[in-house]
Design brief:
By secondary structure, this protein is α+β, with helices and mostly antiparallel strands. It is built from 10 helices and 14 strands. 34% of the residues lie in helices and 27% in strands. Bound molecules: adenosine-5'-triphosphate.
């Protein structure tokens, strides 16, 4: 094993604890200067290593590895990884234009210069976030594609609970928020279909993983980063791999049309159900209590003074 890999192994084995430069040098039988040079190289490769004058070094994050993602999930057929791009949604469309047979292809970027939100809204995408678009061709009816909002937001909430034991909430239709309604993740669906057949769907996801809170206040966003909730910088590869393992499982439920399981699990994480809300659609404003999600269509069911109403999309404001 070469010295860089040896140092990496020592840091990884020490599991979130500092290891002194002296101990690493002893183990490798090299000088402390040599250890310092290796650490510098690792940082240049994208490893996040905390340095402490007395305690030494602690590994706090690894660079993103597309190979790891492909190895650890069966679901993805190809991963396109970019340091910086305009928008992974645009790139996904370019890929489909070049090869219409592209399927289960993931486009992932460390930074986007024109990240997209719903209805031409902007998704701020500085370094430290996870931004991806996934091309899928599910064998479901076009209106059922809406369920993908639940597949992805549920997967994000479940991954966060599993990895960091932190409770976050799914907010209808497509967000994941913290207990104070600050947005952690947004989801965007673009679909191309005929009356009864889905040609393709691109699922865009933006997650605030390791973004400094100053960024959100500067841009006046009601947002929060996972790192702030958990209280430390998070390992992007670990998070991404675990997230895709979840997505793989939940996507299977979706293709098997087990919508009742998906929607009831989504409801168990939801901050919308049970609340007094106001939903603004293109044509109307509906006010009432959110009482559930239709497991047939994915519509939000709202109890109003005029009876139960179902809405498939719109801006949802939690009133109480
Ligand atoms: P909203 O929650 O504002 O109603 P939306 O859910 O309808 O938005 P999305 O596509 O989910 O639409 O998100 C776009 C909106 O999210 C932007 O208009 C902006 O207010 C906010 N936003 C943009 N970038 C971020 C980010 N990195 N983190 C959190 N919120 C963001």
């Amino acid at each position: 094993m070469d010295s860089t890999l040896k140092v990496l192994a020592i840091l990884k084995n020490s599991k979130n604890k500092f290891v002194s430069g002296e101990n690493i040098a002893k183990e490798l039988k090299v000088s402390r200067v040599a250890v310092y040079k290796i650490i510098k190289k690792l940082i240049q490769e994208g490893y996040k290593i905390e340095k402490h004058k007395k305690l030494g070094y602690k590994l706090i994050g690894s660079p993103f590895s597309p190979e790891d993602l492909l190895k650890k999930t069966k679901f993805l057929k190809e991963v396109v990884f970019l340091k910086k791009t305009t928008s992974t949604m645009e790139l996904a469309k370019d890929i489909l234009a070049k090869n219409p047979y592209s399927e289960q292809v993931l486009i992932i970027a460390e930074e986007q210069t024109s990240g997209k939100g719903r209805i031409e809204r902007k998704w701020f995408s500085p370094k430290g976030g996870l931004y991806f678009s996934l091309i899928v061709k599910p064998n479901v009816l076009p209106y059922e594609v809406f369920m993908l909002n639940y597949v992805f937001s549920l997967s994000v909430a479940e991954t966060i609970k599993d990895l960091y034991n932190v409770r976050v909430f799914t907010k209808w239709p497509n967000d994941v928020v913290d207990a104070y309604h600050r947005k952690i993740c947004g989801i965007l669906l673009e679909i191309d279909s005929e009356i009864d057949k889905v040609n393709y769907c691109i699922v865009g996801v933006g997650i605030n993983v390791n973004i400094n809170s100053k960024f959100f206040s500067k841009h006046k966003l009601k947002a929060i980063s996972l790192s702030q909730i958990v209280g430390k910088n998070l390992d992007m590869t670990e998070f991404t791999v675990e997230l895709f393992k979840r997505i793989e499982k939940n996507y299977k439920l979706f293709e098997e049309k087990k919508f009742d399981i998906l929607t009831s699990r989504w409801v168990s994480h939801s901050s919308t159900i049970g609340r007094t809300i106001k939903v603004q659609t293109f044509t109307q404003t509906i006010k009432g209590t959110a009482v559930g999600i239709s497991s047939k269509t994915g519509a939000l069911i709202i109890k109003t003074p005029y009876g139960l109403k179902e809405v498939l999309s719109g801006d949802c404001i939690h009133l109480r």
